[in-house]
Every structure is written in structure tokens, then in C-alpha cells.
From TrEMBL:
Pfam families: LacI (PF00356), Peripla_BP_3 (PF13377). Residues 4-58 form the HTH lacI-type domain. SMART domains: HTH_LACI. InterPro entries: HTH_LacI, LacI/GalR-like_sensor, Lambda_DNA-bd_dom_sf, Peripla_BP_I. Keywords: DNA-binding, Transcription, Transcription regulation. GO terms for molecular function: DNA-binding transcription factor activity; transcription cis-regulatory region binding. It comes from the Bacteria. This is LacI family DNA-binding transcriptional regulator.
Length: 340
């Protein structure tokens, strides 16, 4: 069968080809009723736009570049699902690349995305990214960038994030309300905005409940599991060790549960454990783990929508706006109330 074209849709609906084209792109110039009429008909006849023709006509590839630290991370896989859903519905394709927590790899993947002529870039920076020269260079080429989850104030770009401060405050408050007073906070490198916001939420909850902030209870680690065990040992050797562990990153929560089990420390009888995570197995662990769940798919959807708006120049809101999406605290057995 021959492919259906915009001209075929226009002829069937008695509209001009330019009106159909704008309606399919979601242009503000076309009424909502006409858009609905065109979209319903296009779906009914299974219309598929020709990406090569669109690219030549619009001088755009209709491809979004997505760079994440690691696809295997459950948060990023959910965010990518959200990105792809929006991109597909808006007629865009997606190229997904990984930095593997490496600044060097991130720079290379950005270069690869530009070589493929992406229309815009969605990026969550690596744990090593403390220099954003490669992203500034992309902006100088007028390629729009939207940052999500792991963002940096050094880049003048839209940022879509979870409410990291609010989520950390809620987790710490919950531990305090269940009788815990020596709450260890363990996170990824401190120069990252995501860590700074979660640490600020932790401190604010301590202050609100009249508990002192103790620098000895705060630790920062990398992404290698062998780096983690010495941190737990240091915390447990304190003269007054923690009675709760707040792991402010998903992978750390699993490592902490393993480390405590190896040391025969019972959860929650001796210590509480809470994560900031999207791991799907949290409720299947022993004990089931309390977590702050991030709205990963919604973050991905919002980031993709924002990038497409910038590409198509449909909106006039400040390009540097930050959107914070609320988290959800899920309480399970690992933070059961302390008994005297």
C-alpha cells in the first residue's frame, strides 16, 4: 500500500495542506476543533509522517538526544519511558546514550549527539561532571538543552527535578517521629545539586525538631560498592553510633542493607533504614524498605515537553525556569517505630 500523505488527509477533510501540517504539529495557529478533527482522522487511517521529508522541509531532524548516567538505574529507565512517550506522540525520535558516571564519556556522548544532528538535548549529568564547558558549547550553537534530575546551576537552561529538599525533609522527619535521634545521612558527591538539596532538607528537619546537626553523621561516597563498607564501619565506630540510616541515593540503600546484615545489625530493631529510591523491589526486601519515591516518569515527560516547546518556540516562559515535582514517602517495615 502507498503511504498516506498530508495531501491525502487535506483532500479527505477539505482542508489546505498547510492547515493539516500545522494541526499535526500542534501549532497554536490552529483551533482546537480542527486539531482534533485532523488528529482523529490521522489516527484512524494510521498516518505516519515521513521523517526524512520532515527533516528536509523543516531543517530539523525531529530527533531528541537523551544522556543519562546509567540506563540500568531504575529511575532513569522510568524517566526514559516518560521521554519516549511524549516524543512519540509529538512525532520525534529519541537517541539514548549513557555517560556511565564519567565526565569524559559524557563529553563524548554530547559530541555524538551533535554529530547526529539532534534538535535538542535532555541530560542528567554524571557524578563526575563539575565542568560544563561541553554543554555551554552546545548552547552557543543554539541547540536547546533541558536538564533533569541531576542538574547544575552553572547552566542557564530549564531544569526538571524532584522536590529533593522536600523529600529529604519528609524522610528525616519520619525517622525522628519514630523515635530515632542519631540519623546518619549518606549521599553521592557533595558538589552535586541533588546532594546539596537533600542535605539541606535533612538539616532543616533536624532543626525543626530541635536536634543538633552532627557532621560526623554525614558521609559522601562514590559509585563503587567497595567504597561503601568503610563508611558504614566508620559510622558504627562512633562513640554514639547511628540509630537510623538515611541513604539519599537509591543504590546506597541496597548496599547499606547488605552491609548491616553482614554485621548482624537488625533492621529495624537496632537501626532504621530509609532510601531515596525508585527500586521496584523495595517492598520485597527483608524487611520491606521505606523509601522516598521520585516521580521519574513524570519528570521525563515534563522534560521532553519542555524541550519540544523550546525547539518549536511555542511558548514565551523564561528558558531557565525550574520545575519541582513532589515525591511520595512510602513507609514500610525498615523504619518501624523504635521500642524502648
Amino acid at each position: 500500500m502507498d503511504a498516506v500523505t498530508i495531501k491525502d488527509i487535506a483532500r479527505a477533510l477539505n482542508l489546505s495542506t498547510s492547515t493539516v501540517s500545522r494541526a499535526l504539529r500542534g501549532s497554536y495557529e490552529i483551533s482546537a476543533e480542527t486539531k482534533r478533527l485532523v488528529m482523529d482522522y490521522a489516527e484512524r487511517i494510521n498516518y505516519q509522517p515521513n521523517p526524512i521529508a520532515l527533516s528536509l522541509k523543516e531543517n530539523r531532524s525531529r530527533v531528541l538526544g537523551v544522556i543519562v548516567p546509567q540506563i540500568a538505574n531504575n529511575f532513569f529507565s522510568q524517566a526514559i519511558n516518560g521521554i519516549e512517550a511524549i516524543a512519540y506522540n509529538r512525532g520525534y525520535h529519541v537517541i539514548i546514550m549513557q555517560s556511565h558516571e564519567s565526565l569524559e564519556r559524557e563529553v563524548l556522548t554530547v559530541q555524538q549527539a551533535m554529530a547526529r544532528r539532534v534538535d535538542g538535548l535532555l541530560i542528567s549529568i554524571s557524578s563526575q561532571t563539575n565542568n560544563l564547558a561541553h554543554l555551554h558549547a552546545i548552547q552557543q550553537r543554539n541547540v536547546p538543552i533541558v536538564m533533569f534530575d541531576r542538574v547544575s546551576a552553572e547552566l542557564d537552561a530549564p531544569k526538571i527535578v524532584a522536590d529533593n529538599f522536600g523529600g529529604a525533609f519528609a524522610a528525616t522527619e519520619h525517622l525522628i517521629q519514630t523515635g530515632r535521634r542519631r540519623i546518619a545521612f549518606v549521599a553521592i558527591p557533595p558538589y552535586m545539586a541533588i546532594t546539596q538539596d537533600r542535605l539541606a532538607g535533612y538539616k532543616a528537619a533536624l532543626t525543626q525538631y530541635g536536634l543538633p546537626y552532627d557532621d560526623d553523621l554525614v558521609r559522601f561516597v562514590g559509585f563503587q560498592e567497595h567504597e561503601f563498607d568503610p563508611v558504614i564501619d566508620d559510622l558504627l565506630r562512633l562513640s554514639t553510633p547511628p540509630d537510623a540510616f538515611f541513604m539519599a541515593f537509591d543504590r546506597l540503600a541496597l548496599w547499606c542493607m547488605t552491609a548491616l546484615r553482614k554485621r548482624n545489625i537488625a533492621i529495624p530493631e537496632q537501626v532504621s533504614l530509609i532510601g531515596f529510591t525508585n527500586i521496584s523491589v523495595a517492598e520485597l526486601l527483608d524487611p520491606p524498605m521505606s523509601t522516598v519515591v521520585q516521580p521519574a516518569q513524570e519528570i521525563g515527560q515534563t522534560a521532553a515537553e519542555r524541550l519540544i516547546e523550546l525547539i518549536e518556540l511555542k511558548e514565551k516562559a523564561p528558558a531557565t525556569s525550574t520545575v519541582k515535582i513532589p515525591n511520595t514517602l512510602i513507609v514500610r517495615e525498615s523504619t518501624k517505630r523504635k521500642t524502648e
